[in-house]
Design brief:
Length: 291
C-alpha cells in the first residue's frame, strides 16, 4: 500500500497538484486529460520531485529522502529512447553498471534474465534507434527489472503504439505485476479498465474521484443508451445527443451508444463502461448538453 497524503506542488504561482490524497495498491491507474498533473504526481511518488506540502507513505512509514526505498522503485517515463546508437544488450549492460551490478558474470546473467522477461532475446543485437515504439517500451521494462523493484511506475505505457503492440504490452504489464504495486497513467480508458483494479481521476491538479472501474462506471448509471438507426437518421441524432460509439449492423443498420440524462425515443438502457463514468465525472452535466 502506498498512501499519498495532502500532496501539493506549485510551479511559480500555479498549483500543478493540489491536496492530493490516494490509497494505491495492486495495479493503480491515473487517468485525466493532458496537463492534469499525472506525470508530475508519478514523479513525486518516484521521489524525483520534492513537494511543497504533504507526504508519501510506503508501508505506513515515511522517509522524506526516500533513500531507503530507492532500489524498490522503478520508473519508466513516457518516452524511453536513451542510447539510440547502441544495441539493446549494450544499453541494458550499461544501465546495469549504473545500478551497481559491477561483476561481469552477474551482470551478464541479469541482462539475459530481463531480456527473457520481455521476450527480446532474439532482438538483443538491434540498435535502440531501429526499434518500434513497443519494443523500446519493452527495453524500458527490462531495465526496470535489473534490480528487484516492488513498485513499478509507468507513464503512458501504451501511448504511440499500434493496436497489436498495445495488446502485447498491456499483457506484459499484467504478467509482471504479481506481488508488486504498479502505477500507470493513461488517457486510454480501455487499457486502464483492462489493467487496473483501482483508478484515480485527475483534472487540473486535483483528484475528482477514486474507485474501481465498476464504481467509476456507475457514475453514468441511467445515462447510457443504445439505439438502432438507419444512416439517414444519424445527422438528427448527432444534433440532439452525445454519441459515444457507432457500430455497423446487418441490413444497413447502425447501433449507436448515446449519453443522455433522459431516455431517447426507441432507445434501451445499457450498462455503463469506465469511459462513460469517466466522461460524466470529468465534464459534469456539460457532457450531455449538445444543443
Amino acid at each position: 500500500m502506498i498512501k499519498v497524503r495532502n500532496i501539493s506542488k506549485k510551479y511559480k504561482n500555479r498549483y500543478s497538484l493540489k491536496n492530493i490524497n490516494l490509497n494505491i495498491e495492486g495495479i493503480y491507474g491515473l487517468i485525466g486529460p493532458n496537463g492534469a498533473g499525472k506525470t508530475t504526481l508519478m514523479r513525486v511518488i518516484a521521489g524525483l520531485i520534492k513537494v511543497d506540502e504533504g507526504e508519501v507513505l510506503f508501508r505506513n512509514s515515511y522517509d522524506s529522502s526516500i533513500k531507503s526505498l530507492r532500489e524498490s522503485i522503478a520508473y519508466l517515463p513516457q518516452d524511453f529512447n536513451i542510447y539510440p546508437r547502441v544495441t539493446i544488450e549494450e544499453c541494458l549492460n550499461h544501465i546495469a553498471i549504473v545500478k551497481g551490478l559491477s561483476k561481469s558474470f552477474d551482470r551478464k546473467r541479469k541482462v539475459q534474465e530481463v531480456l527473457e522477461i520481455v521476450n527480446l532475446v532474439e532482438h538483443k543485437y538491434k540498435k535502440i534507434k531501429d526499434l518500434s515504439g513497443g519494443m523500446r517500451k519493452r527495453v524500458g521494462i527490462a531495465q526496470m527489472f535489473l534490480t528487484e523493484p516492488k513498485i513499478l511506475i509507468i507513464d503512458e505505457p501504451t501511448n504511440g503504439l499500434d493496436i497489436s503492440e498495445r495488446f502485447r504490452f498491456r499483457n506484459l504489464i499484467r504478467s509482471i505485476s504479481k506481488d508488486r504495486t504498479v502505477i500507470i497513467t493513461s488517457h486510454i480508458a480501455e487499457d486502464v479498465e483492462f489493467l487496473c483494479n483501482k483508478i484515480g481521476i485527475l483534472k487540473n491538479g486535483e483528484i475528482l474521484k477514486e474507485g474501481t472501474s465498476e464504481e467509476i462506471a456507475n457514475y453514468a448509471k441511467g445515462m447510457v443508451w443504445e439505439i438502432t438507426a438507419k444512416p439517414n437518421e444519424i445527422s438528427n441524432i448527432l444534433h440532439h445527443y452525445t454519441v459515444l460509439n457507432i457500430e455497423k449492423q446487418p441490413f444497413d443498420n447502425l447501433k449507436l451508444r448515446i449519453f443522455s440524462k433522459s431516455q431517447p425515443k426507441y432507445a434501451k438502457p445499457v450498462e455503463p463502461k469506465l469511459i462513460d463514468g469517466y466522461l460524466s465525472i470529468l465534464e459534469g452535466d456539460g457532457v450531455f448538453d449538445v444543443t
